[in-house]
Amino acid sequence: WITGTLFEEWLLKVDQKLNQKVVLLLENCSAHMVAKTLVLKKIVTHFIAPNMTSHLQPMDAGIIKNFKAIHKSVFR
User: Fold this and answer.
1) Which residues pair with 44 in a beta bridge?
2) Per-residue pLDDT tens for 41-73?
3) Rounded to 5 degrees, what are φ and ψ at 73?
4) Is the pLDDT reported for residue 37 higher than 80?
5) Which residue, 58, 65, 67, is CA-closest to 25?
6) Please, what sign has the CA dihedral across residues 66, 21, 74, 52?
7) 47, 12, 19, 42: which is closest to 32 by C-alpha?
8) How far is it, in rounded angstroms, from Cα 10 to Cα 27?
9) Helix (H, G, I), strand (E, B), or coil: what is residue 28?
10) What is the pTM of this model?
């Protein structure tokens, strides 16, 4: 499980390494709430509507697979 502190540290690290602006879609979980108060240069956070997770789950596997591959190649 991720905590708000770990998520904040990760967001700041990713924000510094990015070369372009991105939109990060987040669920309304307690760890993600720090994103509302952070000032980021290249990441724009947007919270999806409550109860949308079940509608989006079919694409989760592909997104997670791609995210992990990109994250491993950029942040190692």
Assistant:
1) 23
2) 999 998 888 777 677 777 777 777 888 888 888
3) -75, -30
4) yes
5) 67
6) negative
7) 47
8) 16
9) coil
10) 0.67
